[in-house]
């Protein structure tokens, strides 16, 4: 690469591609964090709602057997909902991992193609 103009053009292309890659990574990060926060807020809301229901059941029931059955039903419902929230979180992590992998592979392919093109151009000169 004896031509300074070609060298500057290549550096410019790497800079532009680097900026675009970082912007895309920031978008993936932001989207993932927003989804994670949403899942956490849903889970927190579930816990608060269950706590409120538990207080309601405790204040309404005076029969120990009925109170016990209500607590068991609440516990079962909470555990099922938490398991569902856990599955959602695993799915979100898998989706984010796939997006990160795709981003990385795309960046590597772009870099390789630019370097290959520059090497071929240098060999022609």
TrEMBL record:
Domain Phasin: 13-106
Annotated source species: Sedimenticola selenatireducens
Protein known as: Phasin domain-containing protein
Taxonomic superkingdom: Bacteria
Pfam families: Phasin_2
């Amino acid at each position: 690469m004896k031509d300074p103009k070609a060298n500057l053009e290549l550096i410019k292309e790497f800079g532009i591609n680097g900026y675009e890659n970082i912007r895309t990574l920031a978008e993936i990060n932001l989207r993932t964090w927003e989804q994670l926060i949403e899942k956490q807020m849903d889970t927190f809301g579930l816990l608060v709602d269950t706590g409120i229901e538990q207080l309601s059941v405790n204040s309404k029931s005076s029969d120990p057997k009925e109170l016990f059955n209500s607590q068991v039903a609440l516990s079962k419902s909470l555990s099922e909902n938490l398991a569902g929230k856990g599955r959602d979180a695993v799915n979100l992590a898998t989706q984010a991992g796939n997006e990160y992998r795709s981003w990385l592979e795309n960046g590597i392919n772009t870099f390789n193609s630019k370097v290959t093109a520059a090497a071929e151009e240098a060999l022609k000169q």
